[in-house]
Amino acid sequence: MSTPKAVTFDCAETLVAVNWSVAGFAKDCAGHVGLDLPDAAFADYQGLYYSRLPEFRQINRTRDSQQGARFWDRLTQDWLRGLGADESWTMPIRTAAEELGFGPSSILFRLYEDVLPCLEQLDDLGVRCAVVSNWDYSLHRVLDMLGVQSRFEVVLASLEEGVEKPDPRLFHIALDQMGVDPADALHVGDLPEDDFAGATAAGMRAVLIDRNRTQSGEGVIRTLTDLPEAFSWSA
């Protein structure tokens, strides 16, 4: 089959290695500022976060990062209050979250080494690129922090769009913005349901990435630099 006009990429575990959990990151941030709390406290933080997910989803739809920051400020302050801890720890913890999450030595996000070589290959072939990810509004910031935001024509975070993979509508939003027909596009991701099934339901070709494989083949690549090889495969 021919080289696609566009390739859409999943983000987590496809472009970016992610080491994040709600409770775990809260513990990292508290420890970073010297606040010693029992593990149960971080389970409480996670529970509070999940109880406020509907609010967080609505904030994402506004695409207002300042509202997002205020959400995390309130969450942290209310969590500390519920623990009976000093609420003055709120801003140190939030500052630590910024540093550990989005600073130059982020403990959460790392760009895979095969991403930039793959993007160079696609540039040489004249293939346009986009990101279609189940993520929150921070997706743009993460890609910018890692130096690749500008390499993608479209970047879609599901929580901003109000629809998540494997729903084919998320793929269609990206392709509509690019003016590319689904039959002329290919999606790459790590999850069989969200990425492969979702993309094929949208009328796209799709391949999975599994970096634990010893070689590429049968619809799965072991490295993004093998992606051009997959252009000859059927969906």
What does this structure look like?
The strands form 2 sheets. A 6-stranded parallel β-sheet has the order 5-4-1-6-7-8, with helices on both faces. It has a two-stranded antiparallel ribbon with strand order 2-3. The chain has helices at 22-32, 39-51, 53-62, 65-83, 90-102, 115-125, 139-145, 158-161, 168-178, 192-201, 227-230; strands at residues 6-9, 16-18, 109-111, 128-133, 154-157, 185-189, 205-209, 220-221. The protein has 235 residues and is an alpha/beta fold. The termini are close together. It folds into 2 domains: 6-18 and 109-230, 3-Layer(aba) Sandwich (Rossmann fold), CATH 3.40.50.1000; 22-102. The longest helix is centred in the first third of the chain and has 19 residues, at 65-83. The model has no long low-confidence stretch (mean pLDDT 97).
The total beta strand count reads 8
Helix content estimate: 40-55%
Strand fraction equals: 5-15%
Distance between the termini: 9 Å
Highest-level CATH class of the largest domain: Alpha Beta
In short, what is this structure?
With 235 residues, this protein is of the alpha/beta class. Helix content is 48%, strand content 14%.
List keywords for this structure.
235 residues; alpha/beta; Rossmann fold; 2 domains; six-stranded parallel β-sheet; two-stranded antiparallel sheet; 8 strands; 48% helix
How are the SSEs ordered, and which strands pair?
Elements: E1 6-9, E2 16-18, H1 22-32, H2 39-51, H3 53-62, H4 65-83, H5 90-102, E3 109-111, H6 115-125, E4 128-133, H7 139-145, E5 154-157, H8 158-161, H9 168-178, E6 185-189, H10 192-201, E7 205-209, E8 220-221, H11 227-230
Helix pairs in contact: 1-2, 1-5, 2-4, 3-4, 4-5
